[in-house]
Amino acid sequence: MICPHSAMVRACLLVFAAVVARGGARASESPATAPIRIALAGDSTVATYPDNIAQKGWGQFLGLFFDDHVKVTNFAKGGRSTKTFLSEGLWAELLKSRPSIVLIQFGHNDSHSAENPEHTDPQGLYRSILERFIDETRAAGATPILVTPVQRRTATDNLIPYSDAMKGVARQRKVSLIDLHRSSGELYARLGPAGTAALAKSADDSTHFNAEGARLVAALVKDDLLICVPPLRGHLAHAPPAPAP
Q1: How many CB atoms lie within 10 A of CB 174?
Q2: For the packed helices 160-173 and 180-197, what is the interaxial angle rounded to 10 degrees?
Q3: CB count, 10 Å around CB of 31?
Q4: Helices 211-228 & 180-197, crossing angle to 10 degrees?
Q5: Domain ranges of the chain
Q6: Around 211, how many Cα atoms within 13 Å sit in the side-chain half-sphere?
Q7: Which helix (H) or strand (E) holds 38?
Q8: DSSP state for residue 3 in the 8-state scheme
């Protein structure tokens, strides 16, 4: 489900147009030249990693698909859920960056067993924190876009309740949604077991990505982001990013 209702698309574009019109501009910028700032909230599957670490997150590749007018800042951090991203101050730090657009992907760590401090119930705290993220993003003059959690490469998918809950929040709050849970599952089906395994950080890791896997997932996010925010189509990079070594 991507920007599923025309009303939602219009709402997204109206808010985005308002942000660009008043610029989200900082003191040194005019509304006409202010960049489009995309901030990412998420967990290890989104986070940025150093060059000397095999693990990569899709968030560190997203900005490579756009020209210099689009600035992607990645606040995602490994091991975080909606609850701990909020409680540790990462969400407050993101809002201070004055983004134009905020992409929000959580679910992996929320789905951990109930005795873990990062756990949230999909129809309880998970939903309520997502709603808070939406409200505070809008209050800051930015456009929230929810991103369902990228699939794990496992036979049993315990992220479905979180993906479904996020879709419910998007419908209720009329927020644009990128269904990465669906599109990543379709990618894995196309590649088959061997092709999908080649995207993993290591042979025994069914969640995290190497550089090629993270780049392919970032491309999925980019494709759907262009549907949710059409003005970004005018800021695509001239050449797509090459796979990192």
Answers
A1: 15
A2: 150
A3: 12
A4: 160
A5: 6-24+35-227
A6: 11
A7: strand 36-41
A8: S
User: What torsion do the CA atoms of 132, 135, 137, 141 make, to the nearest 10 degrees?
Assistant: -160
CB atoms within 10 A of CB 44: 19
Q: Cα Rg for the chain, rounded, in angstroms?
A: 17
d(C-alpha 91, C-alpha 80), whole Å = 11
Does the pTM of the predicted model rise above 0.70?
yes
* DSSP per-residue letters across 91-137: HHHHHHT--SEEEE---TTTTS-TTSTT---TTTHHHHHHHHHHHHH
For residues 145 and 228, the answer to whether their CB atoms sit within 8 Å is yes
Give tens-digit pLDDT for 140-166.
999 999 999 999 998 889 999 999 999
- Torsional sign, CA 21, 27, 30, 34: negative
One-letter amino acid for residue 13 of the chain: L
Contact (CB, 8 A) for 150 and 111: no
Looking at domain 6-24+35-227, does it have CATH number 3.40.640.10? Answer: no
Taking the C-alpha atoms of residue 113 and residue 236, their distance in angstroms, rounded to an integer, is 41
Q: Using the CB atoms, write b or e for 7-16: b if 16+ within 10 Å.
A: ebbebbbebb
Token reading at 172: 């209720």
**Token pair 């050449």 is at which residue?**
239
Neighbouring CB atoms inside 10 A of 2's CB total 19
Q: What residues does 145 pair with on adjacent strands?
A: 103, 176
Measure the CA–CA gap between 45 and 20, rounded to whole angstroms. Answer: 29
Per-residue pLDDT tens digits for 6-51: 444 555 555 555 455 444 555 555 555 789 999 999 999 999 999 9
